[in-house]
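Field: sequence (string)
Field: structure_tokens (string)

Example rows 1 and 2, in order.
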Amino acid sequence: MGDFTEKEKNVRKLFSQDITNPKPNNCFSVYDAHGISTNNALAKIKQLIANCKDKMKCQHIQELTIVLCVGQGFDKSSPANYNNNSIRNRSVEYFSQKNIYCEYLNESEQSYKQLTSNKPNKGVIVAFIMPDFQG
């Protein structure tokens, strides 16, 4: 099993703060997909999208961003890259069909802050994904 780097842990901490102190007009959801298969991760993210759109507080959402926070190894030469690229390709295909913007966050607190900045009608779902998928 891989583990989150310090930078990734900081991003997770930032997200936890957003859950505790939600920003106005924003809808947040999180899913920690550490160590489960690609298929299960994507299925869970799809469910989060449905739940987000169903909740009263999120009905104003017009722009929904999916942030896949990939664990260490995503951009390095490692056996894990094949599965991570599979996640990237399959999720982009699914989300583009649904007109949902999909962003990839790799050890970047600044990118996270920009994506989750307080913009009207914007929703963010964050999925923390490790590079050791078996599916």
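Row 2 begins here:
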Amino acid sequence: NEYFVLMLGAGLAASVIEESPRSVKNVLGFGAYVIAAFKETLLRKRSLYRIALDARPPISVRGSALFVVNLGRLPGREIGIAPDASGRDGLVDIVVIKTKTLFHSAAVFAQLLIGRRPDYHQYQSHRASDVQIESRRPESVQLDGDLAGKTPVRVRVLPGAVRVFISRDVIADI
């Protein structure tokens, strides 16, 4: 079992991390991710994901990246992928970026990189407490920015599993 607090990413969301070696990050910092995102957006084809949400029948959706988001907001910063995701509701937000072209993918990911909400007709989103994700070909998976294997994966919300202490003045931001 592996755990995450913020999000799981598959497809492009994980390959960008995979293609950003530490040596490049040490020199370019965040720019290493920008370069990897551009390269991966050019090279990658969309994946066919099969997603089972709670006890509902699985759905199939084609996309370039898939995210399972627990926390959509950090103190003072919004994560643009699923800004309404809350760590308090017992659900995760599942978002599939469905862009087909390099231009649309670049536009969506550029917005995400600067913390803005992307154009929402380019993605599909759902909410659930138990999510199973399969893909036609194995896709790399990252948990909170660390590589963590390949699909298939199962995500279950574990309410109360982590106790977090924060100051009162930060509570409104999360």
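free_text_note (row 2): The radius of gyration is 16 Å.
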